Amino acid sequence: MPCLLLILILAFPRVAIALLWFFTTFFTGVYHGILIPLLGFIFLPLTLLVYTYIVKNYPGPLSTQEFIFLFIAVILDLGLVGGGSLHRRSA
Q: How many C-beta neighbours within 10 Å does residue 82 have?
């Protein structure tokens, strides 16, 4: 079951953010305003989820492993955005 949930989050991160925002307290205490979560929702949704999870569960300075997870999330977000333009050009 957790693997299915992870696949759904990777496939539809904006849906996951909306569900977490409306039905849980996942984002409470991490961000002081609405601007950063809104920008994360629009531009880097997977990175927003990973960063929020890291800050909520591992307080203190970020370790190397946490930076690696953030880097992977950014790469996945940018890959999801850039993949569509590649397919449009070849068609």
A: 9
Q: Number of structural domains, the chain?
A: 1
Tokens, residue 35:
């601007």
CA angle 65, 71, 77 (to 5 degrees): 140
Q: Which domain holds residue 75?
A: 2-90
Per-residue pLDDT, 68: 96
pLDDT digits (tens, 9 = 90+) for 42-67: 999 999 999 999 999 998 899 999 99
- How does the average pLDDT of the chain come out, rounded? 87
Q: Please, are residues 50 and 23 in contact by the beta-carbon 8 Å criterion? A: no
What whole-number distance in Å separates Cα of residue 9 and Cα of residue 38?
18
